[in-house]
What does this fold into?
Amino acid sequence: QVQLVESGGGSVQPGGSLRLSCEASSTLEDVYWGWFRQVPGKDREGVATIRGNLATTIARSVKDRFTISQDDASNTVHLQMTNLKPEDTAMYYCAAGPISRWYSSLSPASISVWGQGTQVTVSS
It folds into this structure.
């Protein structure tokens, strides 16, 4: 079973930036990668997904602020977050889902592998 390990979370002031990284323990074939987030008491939501550096989807709430990228050589996916807002505070999860579910990639129901999560806190 492949494992996904996130890093890069932390606390930042509004307007600041963070870069999250996710490393897979082994290569996964025919998958897309994504970042999701969850606040206690609320449903997990899709933030951004990427398919082989050919296509990405970005949630409207983070569009123009967050960028997703992947490095196939190191089995790593990144989420660059800029102009962070207090409402971005959440546990962020790395995930992988089958290519066949790409057109619903932002839905947590499409995911087959989850990381443990890394906390992002935005406050002054």
Summary: The chain has no helices and eleven strands. The mean pLDDT is 95. The first strand starts at residue 4 and ends at 7.
